[in-house]
Design a protein that fits this description.
There is one protein chain. Strands 4-1-9-10-11-12-13-14 form an eight-stranded mixed sheet. It contains eleven helices and 14 strands. It is an alpha/beta fold. Helices cover 36% and strands 19% of the residues. α4 links the parallel β9 and β10. α8 (255-269) runs antiparallel to α9 and α10 packs antiparallel against α11 (313-320).
Length: 324
């Protein structure tokens, strides 16, 4: 099963300031703020929702096709993804813009000041899925994640026109989208991904009820944080899957992306929805135990031991035959 994952490709520059931002602000001078913070640490991490999802799918052995736009500074990142089983031949490289970048400083109270540079991501709207499908021998599913909004609309319309099944996954972009765009992006989706808060926001912005949305999508996949995930289908009982026990909780960043990576990998293997959700929850647990979205290591024996403990021997036997 050939799955293409569209969305952002970015680099995160994360810094820590040992003091408090509030102590540096003068109440009657807020109209003319000019501040510089001497920071203690700098972590440069690979990120972007499409790249994070593809990394997870790659380490599970499903060879995803990454679709997005990056800058000429993407070479090192590309090599990393290639080494971890991601097909990067469909990434558009901008001739003038750098790869998207998130720069963020966190203070001692965990307040943050951040900036997101869109950069080359704005060129994702120029990518045509047909040329990618022709190059790889067809596409069985396209996951349309947070990206340049025009790119998301173009990819969705092209999937409908060419009868390619697609998954709608707005995540970070849902805050800036209006109801009309959201209605366009989800209508006809085979899968609609969101977390619990985004689920309510989708219903509020579109004016559609849960039942009306279920009539327009094949499956509604809602992540529930520590409670796992629920999969709803019109006229069918919900499928609920819990999370494996965590060894620790180091960093929640990228957990949703890891779930999607595991779930999509399960679809690529041809296992059922419940089993795919279990793989997603297990991979998400590895990510929450690690600082960084692509810093975890998947060791087959360790993964299967924990998967068996969480979901039983029958589930593990089905997954084990597919795990690289």
């Amino acid at each position: 099963m050939r799955i293409a994952v569209t969305g952002s490709i970015a680099t995160d520059h994360l810094m820590t300031f040992p003091g408090r931002f509030a102590d540096q602000l003068v109440a009657d001078q807020l109209h003319t703020v000019s501040l510089s913070f001497l920071v203690d640490n700098l972590d440069v991490r690979r990120g972007g929702v499409a790249a994070n999802i593809c990394f997870g799918m790659g380490v599970l052995g499903t060879r995803p096709i990454l679709v997005g736009a990056a800058g000429s500074d993407f070479d090192e990142y590309r090599a990393w993804l290639d080494r971890h089983g991601v097909e990067t031949g469909s990434v558009r490289i901008s001739e003038v813009l750098h790869t998207a970048r998130f720069v963020c400083t966190t203070d001692a109270d965990h307040n943050q000041i951040g900036s997101f540079y869109t950069g080359a991501m704005s060129e994702a709207r120029l990518i045509e899925l047909k040329s990618i499908a022709d190059r790889v021998g067809g596409l069985d599913l396209v996951s349309i994640g947070a990206d340049d909004p025009e790119a998301m609309l173009r990819h969705t319309e092209e999937c409908r026109t060419r009868n390619i099944p697609f998954a709608a996954d707005f995540s970070q972009q849902i805050a800036r989208m209006d109801g009309e765009d959201i209605r366009i992006l989800l209508d006809g989706a085979t899968y609609l991904f969101s977390n619990e808060y985004e689920k309510g926001l989708i219903e509020s912005k579109t004016g559609w009820s849960d039942e009306e949305i279920l009539a327009k999508v094949g499956h509604r996949v809602t992540t529930l944080g520590a409670r796992g995930v629920r999969i709803d289908r019109a006229g069918e009982p919900a499928i609920e899957v819990g999370c494996p026990e965590e060894d620790s909780k180091a960093d929640p960043t990228g957990v949703g992306d890891a779930f999607r990576a595991g779930f999509l990998s399960g679809l690529a293997w041809g296992v059922g929805l419940e089993r795919a959700a279990q793989v997603g929850c297990m991979l998400a647990t590895l990510v929450i135990e690690t600082v960084g979205t692509q810093e975890y290591t998947l060791r087959r024996t360790h993964f299967m031991d924990r998967f068996t403990k969480a979901y039983g021997h029958e589930a593990a036997a089905e997954v084990r035959q597919h795990l690289a």
